[in-house]
Amino acid sequence: MNSTEHWVSDKPFNPDQATELTPEQEKVYFASQWRLMWWKFKKHKLAMASGIFLLAMYTMILFVEFISPYELQTRHTQYIYSPPQSVHLFDESGKFRGPFVYGWKQTMDMDTLMRTYTEDKSKIYPVKFFHRGEDYELMGLVSGNLHLFGVEGAGKIFLLGTDRLGRDMFSRIVHGARISLTIGLLGITVSFTLGLLLGGMAGYYGGWIDNLVQRMTEIIRSFPELPLWMALSALLPVNWSPLWIFFGITVILAMLDWTGLARAVRSKLMSLREEDYASAAVLMGAKPKRIIVRHLLPGFFSHLIASATLSIPAMILGETALSFLGLGLRPPITSWGVLLNEAQNINIVAIYPWLILPVVPVILVILAFNFLGDGLRDAADPYKH
């Protein structure tokens, strides 16, 4: 019978040396879960870039009056359906002049009533940064007239062209971002609260409460989303103010979006409530509210954050779709969906393609939220490789 020699070190055992950790090991072993999540999230370059982009967008909506060269409703009646202008650095002779635009000359074909715009190269208007222009009230609170950029004198700058009333499309898209981006945050706040409350009660108590919440969820999810949105939006009174219409659309989107989150919370709580630490809290006399909030929810709160991040773009798309169909927000309130409503006629879009430009920020924001949600979902489990 073969035997294998068992090797034993003859060095004296030193418990302090055996448990000594390197600085790198200590950094990882003693890091909190949130810190581990942050380290893993930083490795997701696309999610990091998306997070920076979204942070810039949400910071921008605080200063839309400053960023846009013109006010939301300012009309330039001499420049109706003006195409986007080009910003130049060198004049015709090749001389560097810094950013500037040429004068804009309009002619009209009396047979087709089509306006044609050409550059008047005899007139040069430098683009000035931090330019004093139209008066405004920042967020409706602070009066000012300082704009990020603009041109002096009789010159005009239309980076993305103008609409049928001669309003600057760039300024309107920037102003529309405030409504379109805010509606997602307000909506997810309402749906997140409903999902945590109803899903938490169903998962912790079970029984008839669970059956009631599940039946409500199944009924709501059985309806096709878009027709249901349209039906509920059509119920909003026509004589409501734009502000009430805004809150009404937000509540409608939130009331239809909480079901997925509630199911995720329910299933997670049903598994966690049987854990030893939850049973110990019950035996010690902790109330259900404390058990759910202090012991059960933190165990998967990172997953809830990722789920909420992925729900925001659905609400933005919902508002855009409703406003595009004329059943959501209405002028004078302006969102990306309201701007796209003017591009419903394909003949108009074929002649004036810049009217479809509000769809670009919608696509970019939706993609950014999805990439960010993917990164957060991966980082939510920092121990998974």
Automatic annotation (TrEMBL):
Annotated Pfam families: BPD_transp_1, OppC_N
Keywords in alphabetical order: Membrane, Transmembrane, Transmembrane helix, Transport
InterPro entries registered for this protein in UniProt: MetI-like, MetI-like_sf, OppC_N
Membrane protein topology class: Multi-pass membrane protein
Subcellular location(s) per record: Cell membrane
One Gene Ontology cellular component: plasma membrane
Domain of life: Bacteria
Transmembrane regions: 46-67, 179-205, 243-265, 296-317, 351-372
Family of this protein: Belongs to the binding-protein-dependent transport system permease family.
Name of this chain's protein: Dipeptide transport system permease protein DppC (TC 3.A.1.5.2)
Organism: uncultured Thiotrichaceae bacterium
